[in-house]
Every structure is written in structure tokens, then in C-alpha cells.
Structures
1.
Amino acid sequence: MTLLHRRKNGTLTMLLVASATLLLSASGASAQARIALRSDQPKEVTLGVDGRITLDAAAFFPLDKGSLAYQPTGALKAEPFRMAAGTSVTQARLGFFSHYDKWSGRIDVNYAGQRITFCDIYAAYDFNPHTNIVLGHQIEPLSLGVSTSTRSNSLTGPLPVDFLIPYGRHWGISGTHWGEHYWLSAGLFAGGTERIQARENHQGEGYGAAMRAIWRPYNTEERTLHLGLSAAIRTPERVTSDEGVVTVGGRSGSLVENRTFIAGRLSGIDHYSICDLEAAYRDDRFFVQGEALYTTFSATSGGGSLTNGTRVQLLAKGERSSFWGAYLVGSYMLRGKQRSYSSGGAVFSNVHRTVEPGGNVELMAGASVLDAKPIIGKGYELISALNWYPNRAMMLGLSHTFTDLSEEATAQGRLHLLRDKPLSYHTLQLRAQFVF
């Protein structure tokens, strides 16, 4: 019996080592198998698996933490303010996809924020190589930062994008058509991001529409200029009440420290709208990407309110409250060519299709600003990073972020200012990502 167990353990170890070797040697791995639906069926089904794992390690250095106190959820009194270094699997995602003739489908399971949820669950039909329609649980056509998959993000998402687009995916239908110099997409959406199962006597989950239009004056293998705009209008998700509650918050620096210091809650909201302008340029060495966003919340006929946890602002009937933000990030390739561009998706990857022997090396810098005053707060961040791509499937990056916040940024009332000095801090982060 002992010998049998040893053989099983040895076989398992060999399989694990062989699997790891195959994964690490793949520059752009995608597990696929082809099977026929029937013996007399001329078409074939393509079945595949892909995914990604992102590991972040971060350390935080508040400038004057002695002037601050923090009251954790459920605590009776405030404690000395701390930001502890840590390591976290910030995302682990596994996707299953299929393709048959002009039809395709996908379902993804995602682990993020200590939770496991379904993400993309949809079916798509291609009328031709440049036109398709997608039905299911999907990301809406809005913003270059949001539309870019996390597999192509070398840094933590910008603060204004995280704050000003207060949702992720919804159930809906969208259509996309593109050509060499343009890309157009629009859709209608309803239902929440994580609420897949309907419940008895359930409240509504909101509905809305979104669109994104891109113009590419030139778009070649060596150079791309990307100009676009997008917009969305949506009613809040009224799952537990009819009050029209929307929570907003933006994370800066790292997902390891998952607190949102600039955070607020709006109630009595009839609808909200998002407007976005985006621009990007890349050639063999340089890349730059920027966005400007403007979000407006409109109160119901009964009025509403806006709070950051310590202060409250009442909103009269139909009154609007607007916030804005912007970011700009650029990079220069110290080794290898700049990232690739997807004409069909109107997004950039974080690595070129061809990686130099020994890997591509990238130097990045950026800045962003968010203005949600006078109640929720204002903040800006400065970012620098060095990224190494040993192959198309792997990335190792080191980044530094400086974050400066206003006195209204109280993490929904949990951050206490003892000497009227707002929070500022440095973040040093190491990110490792494997895409297969």
C-alpha cells in the first residue's frame, strides 16, 4: 500500500512539473481542442480555455500618519491609522470559450477582492469579420480604460476611472462594427453585475444604454493614432430598496490595500450619465494614453442626498451633482517594440506580438486627478513603473505611486483627521502576472 501511494505521489509530482514546464514555456498559451458535433457535420466546434493570474505585493508609506486615526467597520472607537504591507492574489480568472461557424460563446469565473463571481457569460454571432452582435453578461462599450482587459493592464487602474464609472458588467445586447479607420459599438443593458439569479418579489436592477465610437486617422502595424468618445446613461440598481442608491469610490496605488479613501453614497438618484473622451498613440518606441471623464447624478422628484460619511448635502428635486477626472500615462520601450493594437477590440495590449530574446523592457510614467468636491473629496496621483515582459504570457513590474487626497476623503467617515491634515502616501508595488 505504501509503495502504491509513493507511485501515485510520484506520478502526480511528474504531472505537475510537466504542466508547469509547458505553461512557463508558452509565449502566448491557449489550450484548445477541436471536436466534430456529429460524424456527418461539416463544421467543427473549437473549445478552449484561457485565463490569468495576477499577484501584487505592496508597501505603503503615509507621510504623517500621526495626524490620522481610523475606525474599522464594527469597531467602537478609532485606532491609530495604519497601512500595512501585504501580498495578495488580486485576480485569478479562468475562461471557457467555444466557436462554431459564425457563432461563439464564453463563460468566465473570476476571483478578485476575496470573492468568486461569474464575469463574461455571452453568445456572439459574426455577420462578417467586422460586424458582430453579443447577447449576455458583458462589459459595456465605454472608456478605453474600462474596455481594456485586465490581462493587458500593467498597472493598477487609474483613480478617476475606478470612481467615475460606478459599475462593471451587466446583462444586455450590444453590436459592434469596425473598419480600418473607425470602430463603433452600442448596446442596451439591464441587471446587475453579480446578480445572476432572479429572486421572488425582487426589486428592479436598473437599465441603461452605452455607446463608444473610435476614429483612427492612421492605423498600421508600426503606428496607431486612436481618438474616441463614449457615453452611458443608466438608472441605479434598486435591489434592496426603491431609493435609487449609488455608491462611489476610487482605489489608488494598489489593490492590496483595498480601502477607498475617496468614497461616497448618493441616494434618491433617478439616473446618472457618464461622458468620456479618450486618445492614444503608439509607435515602435513610444506609447501614450489619456482620458477625461465627467459623471452627473440627477435626483428624483422627491429629492436626494450625497454623503461622504461625515457630511451630508441635500439634493433638491431634479438637482444634479457632477464629478470629473482625467489621467495620462505614457511609456518608452528600453528594449523591444511597443505594445500591439487590436483593431477589432479598439484596445491596446501591454506587450508587442513579438518579444525580444530575453524579454521586452518598458519604462512608464503617468498622472491622474479626480474632483468630487465639495462633499466627497479631491485627489491626484503620480505614477512611475518599470515593466519586464520575458514573453507574451508573463509580466513582472515594479511601480511607485504618490497619492495626495483632500480633507473630505474620509473612507465613508472611517478616517478621522486629528489635526486637519489630509492623507498623503507613497505606494511601492511589485506585480507579477501570468496570462495563458
2.
Amino acid sequence: MEDVAEETAAEIEQLGVSGIAPGLAALAKSLARAVDAAGGNVAAHANAARELRAVMKDLRGLAPVRAEGGALDDLAARRAKRRGA
């Protein structure tokens, strides 16, 4: 699992929360690097992963709501297409 830091950074970028909560974003990236670096130390890996999961949950909750492109928009577009609108 050597790509947790890369994937975490990409998710933080996608969420657009770096400007809203720069400290939490930096903490998440640091924890992700710790997960990658834990190697065979199962306890360190599990602890870093647990904390990363909690921080990412907080960051996801802070993410701005997107006006379009969500699942509800997709559903509405398909419904409109079926109805011939």
C-alpha cells in the first residue's frame, strides 16, 4: 500500500477543502504518508489508517456542496430523457 499518500492528496484536491481547512488537509496528507511508511509495523499502520479515516471524514463533511454533476442530477437527467424532455 504505497499509494495512500498520492490518493489522499488527489481526494483532498477533488474535495476542494485545502483552503477551508488547511491544517486538517495537511494532517491527512501526513497521516497518509505514515500509512505508506509503516511497512511491516502492523500497529503503526492500523493507528495511522484509523486516524486518517477520521480526518478524511471531517474533511468530506467540510467539502462545499457541488451544484451539478451529482447522483441526483444524473437521475434527473435520465428521467427527463425517458420522458422525452
3.
Amino acid sequence: MPQTEAPARRTETARRTRLRWWTELPLILLVYGCYSAGRLLARGDVSTAVDHGLAILRVEKLVRLNAEHPLNRLFTREPWLGIPADFWYASLHYLVTPVLLVWLFRARTTHYRAARTWLMTSTFIGLIGFTLLPTCPPRLLSPDHGFVDTMAQYSSYGWWGGEASAPRGLGGMTNQYAAMPSLHVGWALWCGVILWRHGGTRTAKVAGVAYPLLTALVVMGTANHYLLDAVAGVAVMGVGMLLAPFVMRGADRAKALLTPGATAVTGDSGAAGSPLVSGGCQTSAGERIPRQRETRFGPGAEPGAVPEDAGDGDPAWGLPRPSEVESLGKAR
């Protein structure tokens, strides 16, 4: 009978740890709130942010990287490219990621927790970057650096104004100097990996490759990020992926400590959940003394054995069964 206890215990554990949408949704909203609040609070000094932006340009010039200027000139000159790019930057970041999270939760449940933890861990790392390294995006540099703010240029076509992707009149509620790292690129890379690994179709794999690449082109062409911002976004996601297993293990340990009545499963597979005591004796729920059950039911009774009339009494609480009461009356 002990062999049947292990699968039952595993089933019960799986049922207890099953994720529910009413716990996941507040968690996602909390992380997104921290993301928005972190961007808002870590504004930094404008002159420092400009210095950091210029330093990035000098590093790119030193290593002969200059992807931003050609793309920005192309998007500025061709409205049929610039306008869709602005819509892409202002909306898909906030639509595709949550849609994929919901899809994972419903259709790929076994992969959801790891993917969600990876995304959240990387987002918090990005917030550290915003705080320690406030960076002016190319579009906010002085015009002599050769960048045009396409979102300001095409603002009449969308809901945004001249202050990044914020709706008109709400520019003061966002941090425009949170360019390093680019979480637009980081989150798009997460979406691409999810589509590639779990999409299941060739179309999903193509979208998994195209979405992060196009997002990188968009953030540079609209002058919202430097090339090194995009590289930093990829690096942040890489670090987040490496740290996610440790974060999940830490969360499991914390939950085990905070959950009342949680018991550890010890022993071999044949006696899972049955604590071992000296002399090879076993105890079960409601038994404080080894061999208590053997004394109660007579020699040869196997620990964990369920008699045929188990429904008539409750051995876990030490209540005698009707047959035992009758035998005691005859003995007297």
C-alpha cells in the first residue's frame, strides 16, 4: 500500500502548486507597475543623461558602428516607413508581450512559470540599468548630432505627442531618459524565443525571428535608442534567463516556509511521506509511538494497510471500529 501513496502525494502537491489566473494577474500587474514607476522615479539629471548618450555615440564611433543615422534618415524621408514604425514602437511593446503570456498560461502551462520568471527577472535588471545609467535617447540630443524625432514628426497620425510613446498631455508621466538598456528589444527577444520554441508552426518560427529584428530596426530608426541600447537589452535578457532558475527555487523555498502545514517528502519511493524511525519502524498520521498500529490491529498488520471496513471508523484519530467494540464485549 505504501507504493500507492507516492503518486497520490505527487498529485496532491501538483494540485497545490497549480498556477491560477487570479494570482498571476496581480503579480503581472505588480511587476508592470514597478517597471513604470521605476522609469518614472529614475529620471536622473538631464545633463548626466545627455553625457551618457554622447558617450555611447563616441563608443560606437570608435568601433565604427553607425546604424542609427541611416535608419533615422530613411524613416524621416519615407512616411510609409516612418509612420508604421512609430505605431510599432508605441503599441506592440504593450500588446504582443501580454498576449503571449496569456497564451502560454492557457496553452503551454508547463512552460509558463519559467517563461514568466525569465521575463520578470530581466525586467527588474533593466530597471537597475535605468536607475544607474540614465541615458538621453538620440531624438532628444541637439539637432547638430543629426537625429530627427520621427514620433514628433508624425505625431498627427497617432495618439502620441512629442514625448516618446506617451499619449498627448501625459509626457510628464514617463521617463524619457530610460534608453539604456532597451527593454523594447529585450521584451521582443523574449517574445521571439517563446514563438520559436513553443509556437509549433513554421509561421510562428518566422515571426519569432522577424519580431525582435524588426523591433531593433524600429527603435533605432525612430531615434528612440542607440545600437548599444539594443545590445544591452539582449544582454539583460540573457542574464535574466540564467538567473530565472535560481529565482524560482528561491520562490519555492520561501513558499514552503510561509505555507502552514507543508511537509517534506522523505525516504525512498516505497515509503514516500512516511517518516522513518529507529529499528526500521514506521509511523503514520496520528501515531506517536512506533508499532502503535501493529499493537492495535494485532501482529502481522502492515503499516498503511487499509482494512475492508475502513469506512466505519477513522484510524487516524484512534477511533475503534464496530467489530472491535463487539469483540471486546464478548471477551468481557
4.
Amino acid sequence: MRLFPSTKAQSALTYSAPSNATQLGEHANVHSPTGRYPILTGTPLTKAQTEALGRELDDIYQRVMASLGGDEARYIQRIYATVAYSEVAGRGLLALAGRLSSKRFQGSTWLLGTALLSFSKILNNMELGHNVMHGQYDWMQHPHLNSQKYDWDNVCPAPLWQHSHNYLHHTFTNILGLDHDVGYHLIRITEEQTWTPSDRYNLLKTAVLALGFEWAVAFHDIQISVQEYADSPELHQTMQQKTRALLAKIARQLVKDYAVLPAAAGVTLGRRSALTTLTGNATANVARNLWTWAVIFCGHFTEQAHIYTHLDVNESKGDWYVRQILGSSNIEGSKWFHILTGNLSHQIEHHIFPDMPASRYADIAPQVRAICRKYHLEYNTGRFSTQFSQVLKRIHHFSKPTTEERRAYKQSLSEASKAAADRTDSNKEPSSGWSRFLPPILRHTLSYAK
């Protein structure tokens, strides 16, 4: 049973546009002063073209989904087993490392154990958890490998992630103001986001985000939901459910990795085993966070990843396909590289077919690329080093304001100060005591959890 009915995993192939969506003409207005970081107001194709493109992509989807069977089932079950076995082996080696008298063998065993545990957590997060919770294997009717029951090994509860990711991100991909993954409320990655002095520290904020990416993802839906349900009479009830679920999941993860498992190793093998287990767990979590962040950002914020300013109230499935293609970037690599990315290295294919088993993305990629070429759409792909470099350059580029942006910021200071003084936040409870030192999102979480 899920906590929130609205977070049910869905393919995101259709959705209802919000009532305040802006209707656009048939052709998009493309804005890109430097030739990089393009901004669109809608699809660059005509409606007839997008309908034709949509039919061709629908045909690929139907053929693949009709062919699913034993190969895909065995594949995801092998991934599931690999996650379990590598975790057991990694944790065993971490505990054993503390018993070795030779510092050389202790260090090498710790490194091997940490590497195996990192591998397990990455595979769990990317190829298993992400894809299972997208509903890619619901057709198997497996008791555990389905979107309604699976929960991954990190601090974000599955229902919260499915709401912010499966629904909001995959429906409103790269639409500023609707897709909250654009910058994660922290990093400026387009000129359409107003520059503020804190953006000068874009790269530093990015480093913090990367190191604690699971935490950012965990609190992301809370931050979104406070705004999304602001006018709803069920605000408090909804937020109470979400915050309690989040705090419970955080407690379970912290206790597991930083208390129970180190304590168990210490009781059975000694104090040094507790220390090697604790440090290995912490290192593996950071390694998983860094890898996940890098893959996600390379799939969304490269030089030619398009940002949209509006949603077409009459957006068709074909229009939606085009937006997914132009807003996504692929990463080239080996078979094992693709597996470790959860096949999000095929980000374009994932965004157009989010509920298709990710192991099939490599098969259809040439067909999708040919369709893009046919309709003169950018199929953004490159090696990891190229895409990652572009991401960092983009983040750095938007940390620096233009003369006009700096002037606009200065002119807005007095007006913003007055507005802040007059504005009241009905959803924010007064902070007192030690809570006043916490970031607003943490104060919201604690206040709604009561």
C-alpha cells in the first residue's frame, strides 16, 4: 500500500496541462544569444510534423513493449541478485578489514569492500531502483520488482521521489517553473532564472549538492509540495504524511549504515571492524551520490540541452516527444558503463519512453536517432568527459551576471525588500529556539511532522 495515491508510478506519456499554461503558436521562438544554452517557447516543428514524429515513436514503443518477456525478466532478476551479493561481499570485507593485523592488507581489503559496496549502492540506485520505480517491470507482476512495493537504499522514500520525478519532472521536463529539477532550487543554469549574488557560488553549491545528492533528492519533494499544495485544504494532512515518511526513512537509513551494522561488526569482530564498517558505509554513500549527480546532470544540463519558458496548452504527444528529445542528452560508453548509469546514459530514450525497460534503450537508440535526423532535431550525445565538461562550463557561465542582469538585480533590491516586509507566509510556522538556525526546508519538515 502506498502512502500517497497521487504518487503512483506512471509512464508520463500523457498529462493535463495546468490551467495557466500559455498557448503558443505552431513554431517555437528560439533564443540563444551565444549559440549555446538554447531557450524555447514551444516545439520548433509544425503540428503536422510532430504528429508524424509521434506516430513513428509510438510504433517503436508498441513493438518493444509487445516483445517483452523472459529475457528482460531474467536481466532485472540478475541485477537484483548482483546488488544483493555485492552488498553482502562488500560489507563482509569491510568488517574483515578491521581484523587484519597488516595495515597494507587492511587498507586493500577496506578499499575492495568499499568499492563493492559502492558498486552495489550505485547499481541499486540506478539500474534497479530508478527503473523499477518507474514501472518498467510492473508487467512481470513480481512480488518485489514493481513500482508499488520497491524502495531503494537511500534516504528518499519511493512515493516522494515518484511524485517529484515520475510525475512532475517527466511530465513538465525542462519547463522553467514547472520542472523543479531545473537547478534543483539551488543552481542557476539558464538566463531565464534571475541572477542573485549567491549564484556567484554556483560551482561551490554544485559540489555540495553532488556530495549530498540523496539528501537533496529526499527534501526536494517536500520543498515542491509546500508550494504545490499551498492553497489546498489538505495541505497540512498531505505534508504531515510526506514529512513523517521522509523522517522515518532517514532514520532507518542512518541507523542501518551508521549504527546497527557498525555495532554488529564491532560486537562480533572488535572495535576496529566497527570503524572500518562505518567509514566504508559513509564512503560508499558519498561515491553513490557523486556518480548519481554526475549522470543526472550530464543528461539534463549540457550545452545544447534546451530549456522551455512555457507549456503549450494544446501540447500533443508529439510535441511532448520533441520537448523530451531537445531537453535531454545522452552519454556514450561501454555496456557496463550504461548499466552503471541505469541506462540513463540513454537519457533521450528514457525521457520519451520512461516506462520501457531501460535495458532496451540501446537497441532502439539508432532508430530514435534516425527519426531525429529525419525531422532535423538535435540528438545530443557525446562521451562522458565531453558532457561533464559542458555541464561544468554551463554552471560556471551562469554564475556570472551580464551588465544588464547586475543592473536589474540592483534595481529590484528596494522593491524586493518592501515586498518581503509585506508578505506573509501562511504555511510557515514561527520558528523559535534552535529551529530558527535551520534552513527553511528543514523547519517546514519538522513543523509538518508534528
